[in-house]
Amino acid sequence: MRTLLEKVVGKLVDAKAEGDVIYSGGRSLKLSSQKGSIAEYKVTGSRIVGVRAMKEGRVGIAFSEALDEGSLDLMVQQALANAEHSEENPFERLLDLSGGLADELTYPEAEVSIEEKTRRAISLETAVRAADSRVSAVPYNSFSENDYESSYLSSRGRYTAYADKSYSITSSAVMESGGVKSSYHDYDVAHTFGDLQWEKVIRTALEHAANLLTEAPIATGKYAVVFSPDCLQSLLGCFSNFTSAKAALDKLNPWADKLGTTVSAAELTLADEPQHPGAFRRSLFDAEGVEQKRLVLIQDGVLTNLYQNSVTARKLNTVTTGHAARGATSSISVAGTHLVLTGKHPKPRPSRYLEVIQMDGLYSGANRVTGNFSVAVKGYLWDNGERTQTVGKCTLSGNLLRLLQSAEVSGSGLTASTDRSFFSVPLVFHDLSIAGV
Protein backbone atom coordinates (compact mmCIF):
# COMPACT_ATOMS: atom_id res chain seq x y z
CA MET A 1 0.00 0.00 0.00
CA ARG A 2 2.88 2.36 0.63
CA THR A 3 3.79 2.18 -3.08
CA LEU A 4 0.32 3.42 -4.00
CA LEU A 5 0.56 6.31 -1.55
CA GLU A 6 3.99 7.23 -2.89
CA LYS A 7 2.49 7.39 -6.40
CA VAL A 8 -0.14 9.87 -5.23
CA VAL A 9 2.40 12.02 -3.40
CA GLY A 10 4.61 11.93 -6.48
CA LYS A 11 1.75 13.32 -8.57
CA LEU A 12 1.38 16.20 -6.07
CA VAL A 13 5.09 16.97 -6.22
CA ASP A 14 5.04 16.88 -10.03
CA ALA A 15 2.32 19.54 -9.87
CA LYS A 16 4.59 21.66 -7.64
CA ALA A 17 2.27 21.10 -4.70
CA GLU A 18 2.55 19.31 -1.41
CA GLY A 19 0.07 17.45 0.72
CA ASP A 20 -0.78 14.08 2.16
CA VAL A 21 -2.77 10.99 1.32
CA ILE A 22 -4.80 8.57 3.44
CA TYR A 23 -5.82 5.03 2.56
CA SER A 24 -8.39 3.08 4.52
CA GLY A 25 -9.74 -0.37 3.86
CA GLY A 26 -11.64 -3.06 5.62
CA ARG A 27 -13.69 -6.21 5.50
CA SER A 28 -16.62 -7.13 7.71
CA LEU A 29 -18.89 -10.08 8.33
CA LYS A 30 -22.25 -9.65 10.09
CA LEU A 31 -24.67 -12.37 11.14
CA SER A 32 -28.01 -11.97 12.88
CA SER A 33 -30.94 -14.28 13.41
CA GLN A 34 -34.71 -14.38 13.79
CA LYS A 35 -36.83 -17.35 14.80
CA GLY A 36 -33.80 -19.57 15.24
CA SER A 37 -32.20 -19.15 11.83
CA ILE A 38 -29.91 -16.66 10.13
CA ALA A 39 -31.88 -13.65 8.91
CA GLU A 40 -28.90 -11.57 7.85
CA TYR A 41 -25.60 -12.73 6.40
CA LYS A 42 -23.64 -9.78 5.13
CA VAL A 43 -20.04 -9.62 3.93
CA THR A 44 -18.81 -6.18 2.95
CA GLY A 45 -15.52 -4.65 2.00
CA SER A 46 -14.27 -1.19 1.21
CA ARG A 47 -11.17 0.58 -0.07
CA ILE A 48 -10.82 4.32 -0.36
CA VAL A 49 -7.98 6.75 -0.80
CA GLY A 50 -8.15 10.48 -0.12
CA VAL A 51 -5.69 13.24 -0.90
CA ARG A 52 -5.21 16.70 0.55
CA ALA A 53 -3.44 19.05 -1.87
CA MET A 54 -1.74 22.26 -0.74
CA LYS A 55 -0.56 24.84 -3.22
CA GLU A 56 0.07 28.57 -2.93
CA GLY A 57 -1.59 28.76 0.48
CA ARG A 58 -4.76 27.00 -0.61
CA VAL A 59 -6.06 23.54 0.28
CA GLY A 60 -8.26 21.10 -1.62
CA ILE A 61 -9.32 17.53 -0.94
CA ALA A 62 -10.61 14.71 -3.14
CA PHE A 63 -11.05 10.96 -2.84
CA SER A 64 -11.48 7.85 -4.93
CA GLU A 65 -12.80 4.34 -4.33
CA ALA A 66 -10.99 3.12 -7.43
CA LEU A 67 -7.24 2.63 -7.12
CA ASP A 68 -6.17 2.33 -10.76
CA GLU A 69 -3.73 4.82 -12.25
CA GLY A 70 -6.33 6.81 -14.14
CA SER A 71 -8.57 7.21 -11.09
CA LEU A 72 -5.63 8.35 -8.97
CA ASP A 73 -4.68 10.93 -11.64
CA LEU A 74 -8.23 12.25 -11.71
CA MET A 75 -8.37 12.41 -7.90
CA VAL A 76 -5.18 14.47 -7.66
CA GLN A 77 -6.36 16.79 -10.45
CA GLN A 78 -9.66 17.32 -8.64
CA ALA A 79 -7.91 18.09 -5.34
CA LEU A 80 -5.65 20.62 -7.07
CA ALA A 81 -8.67 22.21 -8.76
CA ASN A 82 -10.50 22.39 -5.44
CA ALA A 83 -7.46 24.05 -3.90
CA GLU A 84 -7.25 26.59 -6.72
CA HIS A 85 -10.85 27.65 -6.13
CA SER A 86 -10.65 27.73 -2.34
CA GLU A 87 -9.83 30.69 -0.13
CA GLU A 88 -6.29 31.21 1.08
CA ASN A 89 -5.62 29.23 4.24
CA PRO A 90 -2.29 30.11 5.86
CA PHE A 91 -3.00 27.96 8.93
CA GLU A 92 -3.40 24.58 7.21
CA ARG A 93 -0.07 23.23 6.13
CA LEU A 94 1.98 20.10 6.65
CA LEU A 95 3.94 19.47 9.78
CA ASP A 96 7.66 19.00 9.26
CA LEU A 97 7.65 15.33 10.18
CA SER A 98 9.36 12.41 8.49
CA GLY A 99 10.04 8.76 9.24
CA GLY A 100 7.60 5.96 9.90
CA LEU A 101 5.37 4.74 12.70
CA ALA A 102 3.60 1.37 12.64
CA ASP A 103 0.74 0.14 14.79
CA GLU A 104 -0.27 -3.05 13.03
CA LEU A 105 -1.47 -5.63 15.52
CA THR A 106 -2.35 -9.27 15.01
CA TYR A 107 -3.94 -11.59 17.54
CA PRO A 108 -3.07 -15.30 17.51
CA GLU A 109 -6.13 -17.53 17.57
CA ALA A 110 -7.28 -20.85 16.20
CA GLU A 111 -9.36 -20.81 13.04
CA VAL A 112 -13.08 -20.66 13.77
CA SER A 113 -15.39 -22.20 11.18
CA ILE A 114 -18.28 -20.29 9.70
CA GLU A 115 -20.53 -23.04 11.06
CA GLU A 116 -19.41 -22.26 14.61
CA LYS A 117 -19.83 -18.51 14.08
CA THR A 118 -23.32 -19.14 12.73
CA ARG A 119 -24.26 -21.39 15.64
CA ARG A 120 -23.10 -18.86 18.22
CA ALA A 121 -24.77 -15.97 16.39
CA ILE A 122 -28.10 -17.82 16.45
CA SER A 123 -27.68 -18.46 20.17
CA LEU A 124 -27.77 -14.71 20.83
CA GLU A 125 -31.47 -14.93 19.98
CA THR A 126 -32.46 -18.48 20.92
CA ALA A 127 -30.79 -18.45 24.35
CA VAL A 128 -32.66 -15.29 25.29
CA ARG A 129 -36.01 -16.67 24.14
CA ALA A 130 -35.45 -19.97 25.97
CA ALA A 131 -34.43 -18.33 29.25
CA ASP A 132 -37.70 -16.59 30.06
CA SER A 133 -41.26 -17.15 28.81
CA ARG A 134 -41.91 -13.42 29.03
CA VAL A 135 -39.49 -12.70 26.16
CA SER A 136 -41.57 -11.67 23.15
CA ALA A 137 -38.81 -10.48 20.84
CA VAL A 138 -35.05 -10.25 20.44
CA PRO A 139 -34.80 -7.35 18.01
CA TYR A 140 -31.08 -6.71 18.35
CA ASN A 141 -28.85 -9.73 18.02
CA SER A 142 -25.75 -9.89 15.91
CA PHE A 143 -22.22 -11.16 15.53
CA SER A 144 -19.73 -8.99 13.65
CA GLU A 145 -16.15 -9.55 12.59
CA ASN A 146 -14.13 -6.60 11.31
CA ASP A 147 -10.68 -6.21 9.78
CA TYR A 148 -9.43 -2.68 9.31
CA GLU A 149 -6.28 -1.05 7.96
CA SER A 150 -5.19 2.48 7.20
CA SER A 151 -2.06 4.22 5.97
CA TYR A 152 -0.90 7.83 5.81
CA LEU A 153 1.89 9.48 3.84
CA SER A 154 2.84 13.15 3.58
CA SER A 155 5.03 14.77 0.97
CA ARG A 156 7.42 15.61 3.85
CA GLY A 157 8.02 11.88 4.28
CA ARG A 158 5.87 11.04 7.30
CA TYR A 159 4.39 7.54 7.00
CA THR A 160 2.08 5.71 9.41
CA ALA A 161 0.36 2.35 9.18
CA TYR A 162 -2.43 0.92 11.32
CA ALA A 163 -4.13 -2.48 11.26
CA ASP A 164 -6.53 -4.12 13.66
CA LYS A 165 -9.13 -6.86 13.96
CA SER A 166 -12.15 -6.91 16.23
CA TYR A 167 -15.25 -8.91 17.01
CA SER A 168 -18.50 -7.69 18.52
CA ILE A 169 -21.74 -9.27 19.69
CA THR A 170 -25.09 -7.79 20.67
CA SER A 171 -28.14 -9.31 22.28
CA SER A 172 -31.39 -7.89 23.60
CA ALA A 173 -34.65 -8.84 25.25
CA VAL A 174 -38.13 -7.44 24.88
CA MET A 175 -40.36 -8.73 27.65
CA GLU A 176 -44.12 -8.53 28.12
CA SER A 177 -46.13 -9.33 31.23
CA GLY A 178 -49.59 -8.18 32.28
CA GLY A 179 -49.78 -5.66 29.47
CA VAL A 180 -46.43 -4.12 30.45
CA LYS A 181 -43.50 -4.16 28.03
CA SER A 182 -39.79 -3.61 28.71
CA SER A 183 -36.54 -3.94 26.81
CA TYR A 184 -32.79 -3.86 27.28
CA HIS A 185 -29.74 -4.71 25.19
CA ASP A 186 -26.07 -5.33 25.86
CA TYR A 187 -22.94 -5.87 23.79
CA ASP A 188 -19.31 -6.92 24.02
CA VAL A 189 -16.16 -6.37 21.97
CA ALA A 190 -13.00 -8.45 21.73
CA HIS A 191 -9.93 -8.92 19.57
CA THR A 192 -10.38 -12.69 19.32
CA PHE A 193 -13.45 -14.86 18.89
CA GLY A 194 -12.60 -16.81 22.03
CA ASP A 195 -12.62 -13.71 24.23
CA LEU A 196 -16.21 -12.73 23.45
CA GLN A 197 -18.46 -12.84 26.52
CA TRP A 198 -21.54 -14.49 25.05
CA GLU A 199 -23.16 -15.51 28.35
CA LYS A 200 -22.58 -12.10 29.95
CA VAL A 201 -24.32 -10.27 27.10
CA ILE A 202 -27.33 -12.59 27.21
CA ARG A 203 -27.52 -12.53 31.01
CA THR A 204 -27.32 -8.73 31.23
CA ALA A 205 -30.04 -8.19 28.62
CA LEU A 206 -32.35 -10.60 30.43
CA GLU A 207 -31.66 -9.27 33.92
CA HIS A 208 -32.38 -5.63 33.21
CA ALA A 209 -35.32 -6.32 30.89
CA ALA A 210 -36.94 -8.42 33.64
CA ASN A 211 -36.32 -5.75 36.26
CA LEU A 212 -37.68 -3.00 34.02
CA LEU A 213 -41.05 -4.77 33.85
CA THR A 214 -41.63 -3.28 37.29
CA GLU A 215 -40.31 0.19 36.49
CA ALA A 216 -42.16 3.12 38.00
CA PRO A 217 -41.49 6.84 38.29
CA ILE A 218 -40.14 8.34 41.49
CA ALA A 219 -41.31 11.58 43.06
CA THR A 220 -40.23 14.76 41.29
CA GLY A 221 -37.33 16.37 43.09
CA LYS A 222 -33.58 16.64 43.54
CA TYR A 223 -31.57 13.42 43.75
CA ALA A 224 -28.03 12.18 44.11
CA VAL A 225 -27.29 10.29 40.89
CA VAL A 226 -24.78 7.60 39.96
CA PHE A 227 -24.33 6.93 36.23
CA SER A 228 -23.20 3.59 34.84
CA PRO A 229 -19.84 3.94 33.04
CA ASP A 230 -21.57 3.69 29.65
CA CYS A 231 -24.12 6.37 30.56
CA LEU A 232 -21.46 8.73 31.93
CA GLN A 233 -19.39 8.16 28.80
CA SER A 234 -22.42 9.04 26.66
CA LEU A 235 -23.10 12.18 28.65
CA LEU A 236 -19.54 13.48 28.40
CA GLY A 237 -19.37 12.42 24.75
CA CYS A 238 -22.50 14.44 23.96
CA PHE A 239 -20.60 17.53 25.09
CA SER A 240 -17.23 16.67 23.54
CA ASN A 241 -17.17 20.17 22.05
CA PHE A 242 -16.31 21.47 25.54
CA THR A 243 -12.76 20.11 25.15
CA SER A 244 -12.32 20.86 21.43
CA ALA A 245 -10.17 23.73 20.21
CA LYS A 246 -11.90 23.51 16.83
CA ALA A 247 -15.27 24.00 18.52
CA ALA A 248 -13.76 26.97 20.36
CA LEU A 249 -12.72 28.56 17.06
CA ASP A 250 -16.18 27.82 15.65
CA LYS A 251 -17.76 29.63 18.64
CA LEU A 252 -19.37 26.38 19.79
CA ASN A 253 -17.38 25.76 22.97
CA PRO A 254 -18.49 27.43 26.21
CA TRP A 255 -15.07 26.61 27.70
CA ALA A 256 -13.24 28.54 24.96
CA ASP A 257 -12.10 31.22 27.41
CA LYS A 258 -11.97 29.01 30.52
CA LEU A 259 -8.37 27.75 30.34
CA GLY A 260 -6.80 28.13 33.75
CA THR A 261 -10.15 28.41 35.52
CA THR A 262 -12.19 25.94 37.58
CA VAL A 263 -14.73 23.95 35.56
CA SER A 264 -15.38 20.95 37.81
CA ALA A 265 -15.13 19.79 41.38
CA ALA A 266 -11.56 20.20 42.67
CA GLU A 267 -11.30 16.45 43.30
CA LEU A 268 -11.54 15.56 39.59
CA THR A 269 -8.83 15.12 36.97
CA LEU A 270 -9.74 14.28 33.37
CA ALA A 271 -7.03 13.03 31.02
CA ASP A 272 -6.81 11.67 27.50
CA GLU A 273 -4.58 8.58 27.63
CA PRO A 274 -3.87 7.11 24.18
CA GLN A 275 -1.94 4.13 25.55
CA HIS A 276 -4.03 3.44 28.65
CA PRO A 277 -3.28 -0.18 29.67
CA GLY A 278 -6.94 -1.09 30.08
CA ALA A 279 -8.07 0.30 26.73
CA PHE A 280 -9.49 -1.95 24.05
CA ARG A 281 -6.96 -0.60 21.57
CA ARG A 282 -4.00 1.71 22.08
CA SER A 283 -3.52 4.79 19.91
CA LEU A 284 0.02 5.74 18.89
CA PHE A 285 -0.43 8.58 16.39
CA ASP A 286 -3.05 10.96 15.04
CA ALA A 287 -4.23 11.73 11.51
CA GLU A 288 -1.25 14.04 10.90
CA GLY A 289 1.28 11.44 11.97
CA VAL A 290 1.96 13.08 15.33
CA GLU A 291 2.94 10.72 18.14
CA GLN A 292 0.30 10.77 20.86
CA LYS A 293 0.96 11.25 24.55
CA ARG A 294 -1.11 11.62 27.69
CA LEU A 295 -2.95 14.94 27.74
CA VAL A 296 -4.45 16.35 30.93
CA LEU A 297 -7.64 18.24 30.09
CA ILE A 298 -8.77 19.04 33.65
CA GLN A 299 -6.34 18.97 36.57
CA ASP A 300 -7.85 19.12 40.06
CA GLY A 301 -10.92 20.85 38.65
CA VAL A 302 -9.00 23.38 36.51
CA LEU A 303 -9.23 23.32 32.70
CA THR A 304 -5.64 22.96 31.47
CA ASN A 305 -5.86 21.95 27.79
CA LEU A 306 -8.11 21.59 24.77
CA TYR A 307 -7.71 19.05 21.99
CA GLN A 308 -5.59 20.60 19.22
CA ASN A 309 -4.49 19.68 15.72
CA SER A 310 -1.86 21.66 13.83
CA VAL A 311 -4.43 24.00 12.28
CA THR A 312 -6.19 24.97 15.50
CA ALA A 313 -2.81 25.25 17.22
CA ARG A 314 -1.50 27.77 14.68
CA LYS A 315 -4.68 29.81 14.93
CA LEU A 316 -4.43 29.87 18.71
CA ASN A 317 -0.64 30.37 18.79
CA THR A 318 0.08 27.10 20.57
CA VAL A 319 1.19 23.58 19.62
CA THR A 320 -0.73 20.53 18.48
CA THR A 321 -1.64 18.03 21.18
CA GLY A 322 -1.60 15.17 18.66
CA HIS A 323 -5.35 14.85 18.32
CA ALA A 324 -5.93 15.52 14.63
CA ALA A 325 -8.75 13.50 13.11
CA ARG A 326 -9.33 13.03 9.41
CA GLY A 327 -10.70 10.36 7.14
CA ALA A 328 -10.05 9.80 3.47
CA THR A 329 -13.14 11.84 2.54
CA SER A 330 -13.12 14.52 5.23
CA SER A 331 -11.33 17.69 6.18
CA ILE A 332 -9.18 17.92 9.28
CA SER A 333 -10.81 18.06 12.72
CA VAL A 334 -9.93 17.02 16.29
CA ALA A 335 -10.84 13.96 18.36
CA GLY A 336 -9.82 12.37 21.62
CA THR A 337 -8.73 8.81 22.31
CA HIS A 338 -9.40 7.25 25.74
CA LEU A 339 -10.82 9.42 28.52
CA VAL A 340 -9.75 8.66 32.08
CA LEU A 341 -11.58 10.39 34.93
CA THR A 342 -9.77 10.08 38.25
CA GLY A 343 -10.46 11.62 41.64
CA LYS A 344 -9.21 12.06 45.17
CA HIS A 345 -10.62 12.37 48.68
CA PRO A 346 -13.37 9.74 48.27
CA LYS A 347 -16.40 9.95 50.53
CA PRO A 348 -19.07 7.36 51.32
CA ARG A 349 -21.99 7.23 48.95
CA PRO A 350 -25.17 8.83 50.26
CA SER A 351 -27.66 6.44 51.77
CA ARG A 352 -30.17 7.22 49.01
CA TYR A 353 -29.36 7.71 45.32
CA LEU A 354 -30.54 6.91 41.80
CA GLU A 355 -28.40 4.60 39.66
CA VAL A 356 -28.91 5.39 35.95
CA ILE A 357 -28.38 2.43 33.60
CA GLN A 358 -30.17 3.68 30.47
CA MET A 359 -30.68 7.07 28.82
CA ASP A 360 -32.94 7.70 25.82
CA GLY A 361 -32.97 10.79 23.62
CA LEU A 362 -29.83 12.39 25.03
CA TYR A 363 -28.65 14.15 21.87
CA SER A 364 -32.11 15.37 20.90
CA GLY A 365 -32.55 16.86 24.36
CA ALA A 366 -29.13 18.51 24.66
CA ASN A 367 -27.92 22.02 23.90
CA ARG A 368 -24.22 21.56 23.19
CA VAL A 369 -23.46 25.25 23.59
CA THR A 370 -25.14 25.96 26.92
CA GLY A 371 -24.58 22.49 28.39
CA ASN A 372 -28.27 22.01 29.19
CA PHE A 373 -29.72 18.53 28.71
CA SER A 374 -32.93 16.65 29.34
CA VAL A 375 -33.03 12.88 28.94
CA ALA A 376 -35.37 9.99 29.76
CA VAL A 377 -33.69 7.68 32.27
CA LYS A 378 -34.14 4.20 33.69
CA GLY A 379 -32.35 2.60 36.59
CA TYR A 380 -32.55 1.70 40.24
CA LEU A 381 -33.25 3.59 43.43
CA TRP A 382 -30.90 2.60 46.24
CA ASP A 383 -31.59 3.12 49.94
CA ASN A 384 -29.20 2.07 52.70
CA GLY A 385 -27.29 -0.29 50.42
CA GLU A 386 -30.32 -2.01 48.89
CA ARG A 387 -32.22 -1.65 45.62
CA THR A 388 -35.66 -0.51 46.62
CA GLN A 389 -37.23 0.31 43.25
CA THR A 390 -36.74 -0.10 39.53
CA VAL A 391 -37.08 3.42 38.12
CA GLY A 392 -38.46 4.46 34.73
CA LYS A 393 -40.78 6.96 33.08
CA CYS A 394 -38.66 9.77 34.51
CA THR A 395 -36.73 12.65 32.98
CA LEU A 396 -33.38 13.85 34.25
CA SER A 397 -32.59 17.50 33.51
CA GLY A 398 -29.40 19.35 34.18
CA ASN A 399 -26.45 21.33 32.94
CA LEU A 400 -23.07 19.74 32.32
CA LEU A 401 -21.16 22.63 33.89
CA ARG A 402 -23.15 22.42 37.12
CA LEU A 403 -23.14 18.62 37.03
CA LEU A 404 -19.33 18.51 37.02
CA GLN A 405 -19.21 21.02 39.85
CA SER A 406 -21.51 18.78 41.92
CA ALA A 407 -19.43 15.63 41.46
CA GLU A 408 -18.19 13.80 44.52
CA VAL A 409 -15.70 10.92 44.44
CA SER A 410 -17.05 7.80 46.15
CA GLY A 411 -14.30 5.24 45.47
CA SER A 412 -10.81 4.74 44.11
CA GLY A 413 -10.82 1.95 41.51
CA LEU A 414 -11.38 2.68 37.82
CA THR A 415 -14.38 1.12 36.05
CA ALA A 416 -14.39 0.82 32.26
CA SER A 417 -17.14 1.42 29.73
CA THR A 418 -18.20 -1.60 27.68
CA ASP A 419 -16.07 -0.50 24.72
CA ARG A 420 -13.11 0.12 27.05
CA SER A 421 -12.43 3.65 25.81
CA PHE A 422 -13.65 5.42 28.97
CA PHE A 423 -12.57 4.90 32.56
CA SER A 424 -13.85 6.54 35.71
CA VAL A 425 -13.62 6.35 39.47
CA PRO A 426 -17.00 5.94 41.20
CA LEU A 427 -18.75 9.32 41.25
CA VAL A 428 -21.92 10.72 42.76
CA PHE A 429 -23.55 13.81 41.25
CA HIS A 430 -25.63 15.72 43.76
CA ASP A 431 -28.88 17.65 43.43
CA LEU A 432 -29.86 16.62 39.91
CA SER A 433 -33.44 17.31 38.88
CA ILE A 434 -35.72 14.34 38.24
CA ALA A 435 -39.22 14.82 36.85
CA GLY A 436 -41.36 11.85 37.84
CA VAL A 437 -44.69 11.91 39.64
Strand content: 35-45%
Question: Oligomeric form of this entry?
Answer: single chain
Number of domain units: 2
What's the total number of strands? 22
Radius of gyration: 24 Å
Low-confidence stretches: none
**Helicity level:** 10-25%
**CA distance, first residue to last residue:** 61 Å
Biggest sheet character: 8 strands, mixed
Instruction: Please count the helical segments.
Output: 8
Give the helices and strands as they follow along the chain.
Answer: HEEEHEHEEEEHEHHEEEHEEEEEEHEEEE
Morphology: globular
- Mean model confidence by pLDDT: 97
Secondary-structure-derived class:
alpha+beta
Could you outline the blueprint of secondary structure elements for this entry?
Blueprint: H1 2-14, E1 18-34, E2 37-55, E3 58-64, H2 69-84, E4 99-104, H3 114-131, E5 135-137, E6 142-154, E7 158-177, E8 180-190, H4 198-212, E9 221-227, H5 229-238, H6 245-249, E10 268-272, E11 295-299, E12 302-303, H7 310-315, E13 324-325, E14 333-334, E15 339-343, E16 352-360, E17 372-383, E18 386-399, H8 400-405, E19 407-409, E20 415-416, E21 422-424, E22 427-435
Parallel strand pairs: 4-7, 9-16, 15-21
Antiparallel strand pairs: 1-2, 1-6, 2-3, 5-7, 6-7, 7-8, 9-22, 10-11, 10-15, 11-12, 13-14, 16-17, 17-18, 18-22, 19-22, 20-21
Helix pairs in contact: 3-4
Describe the protein's architecture and organization:
It is a single chain. This protein has two domains: about 1-210, PmbA/TldD superfamily (PmbA/TldD fold, 2-Layer Sandwich); about 215-435, no CATH class. Helices cover about 20% and strands about 40% of the residues. It contains eight helices and 22 strands. It has helices spanning about 1-15, 70-85, 115-130, 200-210, 230-240, 245-250, 310-315, 400-405, and strands at about 20-35, 35-55, 60-65, 100-105, 135, 140-155, 160-175, 180-190, 220-225, 270, 295-300, 300-305, 325, 335, 340-345, 350-360, 370-385, 385-400, 405-410, 415, 420-425, 425-435. Strands 1, 2, 3, 4, 5, 6, 7 and 8 form an eight-stranded mixed beta sheet that branches. It has a six-stranded mixed beta sheet with strand order 12-11-10-15-21-20, covered by helices on one side. Strands 9-16-17-18-22 form a five-stranded mixed beta barrel. Helix 3 (about 115-130) runs parallel beside helix 4 (about 200-210). The longest helix is centred in the first third of the chain and has 18 residues, at about 115-130. The mean pLDDT is about 95.
